[in-house]
TrEMBL record:
<protein>
    <submittedName>
        <fullName>Putative cytochrome P450 hydroxylase</fullName>
    </submittedName>
</protein>
<dbReference type="Pfam" id="PF00067">
    <property type="entry name" value="p450"/>
</dbReference>
<dbReference type="InterPro" id="IPR036396">
    <property type="entry name" value="Cyt_P450_sf"/>
</dbReference>
<dbReference type="InterPro" id="IPR002397">
    <property type="entry name" value="Cyt_P450_B"/>
</dbReference>
<keyword id="KW-0408">Iron</keyword>
<dbReference type="InterPro" id="IPR001128">
    <property type="entry name" value="Cyt_P450"/>
</dbReference>
<dbReference type="GO" id="GO:0020037">
    <property type="term" value="F:heme binding"/>
</dbReference>
<keyword id="KW-0503">Monooxygenase</keyword>
<keyword id="KW-0479">Metal-binding</keyword>
<keyword id="KW-0349">Heme</keyword>
<dbReference type="GO" id="GO:0005506">
    <property type="term" value="F:iron ion binding"/>
</dbReference>
<dbReference type="InterPro" id="IPR017972">
    <property type="entry name" value="Cyt_P450_CS"/>
</dbReference>
<comment type="similarity">
    <text>Belongs to the cytochrome P450 family.</text>
</comment>
<keyword id="KW-0560">Oxidoreductase</keyword>
<dbReference type="GO" id="GO:0016705">
    <property type="term" value="F:oxidoreductase activity, acting on paired donors, with incorporation or reduction of molecular oxygen"/>
</dbReference>
<dbReference type="GO" id="GO:0004497">
    <property type="term" value="F:monooxygenase activity"/>
</dbReference>
Amino acid sequence: MSVTRPSPELSEYDLSDVAFITDPEAGRRWLAGPRPICRGRSFDGSQAWIVTGYEDAKQVLTDPRFTSRPPGDSHARGLRARGMPEDLVSLFDSMLLSMDRADHDRVRPLVTLAFSARRVRTMRPFIESLVGELLDAMDPAAENDLVAALADPLPIRVVSELIGVDEVHREQWLRWAQTFNGPVPPPADQLAPALRGMVEVTRDLIAQRRRRPTDDLISELIRTRDEDGGRLTDDELAALAILVIQAGHDSVRQLIALTVLTLLDRPDQLALIRSGRTTWSVALAEVMRHAAPVKHAFRRFATEPVEVGGVTVAPGEGVLVVLAAANRDPAEFPDPLVLDVTRTPNPHLGFSRGPHFCPGSTLAMTEVEIAMRELFGRFPKLRLAVAGDEVAPRFLLGVQRLPVLLD
């Protein structure tokens, strides 16, 4: 079957352009834009195929002919180009997100251990207590920034509890996580110290758990590694811990902020939840689809010629799936621009799909559901303290602050 390739001219989707990343109008154009696969640029300025249609997105995310591992040593070169210190390149090159096939099959089950249903159930009382503590600390008589008061501290403390990060280092982890929030790499003088600090604390934590195991995830990973005769290298163990902490913070942080902002903007939808006509679980799935805290998946690379959406992706070419756009594809979702907290079924791609489906999705949704139920239950008069356009999320930077009044 013959296929035609679109013009090689670049589309407007340019992740290497800071103006595009921070421009909410650019994001809105792409979320409602054309669905065919087209050309664009990724963060490093390299050309990539951009996928915005739902079926094409599912194909790329699940087709084994696509890999997360870039050709040759281009991933390591990309890390260096973004300012990664040379002595840390090998460790961060071993991240699960850039693994596939044998390496991914070896490491992925260990990540699943971190977010098992049993572990999430075990953590639920801790999450409920923590949400109560954070809400208690808010001042009902004053303006409160929900990002600083709830969206930031909740996920970093939950994931620290999961991993086994002690209280002394939690504030450090939050500062490091904030350094990496958003797609724009921080300056080298901020990047290197943050990376070295993360690695140093993680390696110290691993050494402590070797000497004195507990029931946290690091101890469990060490036990699994030793019993399996080196299932993980030391670098992979450290990289896995860092990934769980980093990924477990930012996506939840954005989902909390976006859920509040979205529901305050649509009081009719919030009323459906409060009346019991829908559940928080169903409503949050719709917020994931509509507000999209995670806008795109990590790049995939074709390992052989693959036809996607009527074009042939050549071996080695990168493909960037825009999850936020696929989740608004009218071919899959009726009235996709409309927020409908009763929408079922809702096969959104907010947590990706296929072998790199987010293993922490259940824990993330548990955190946000508890936080939203308690927040809106305790403060029924919750409202924005500023005009909505002052806190509107930027396309890839999300919500940075959310001033609200409680009473």
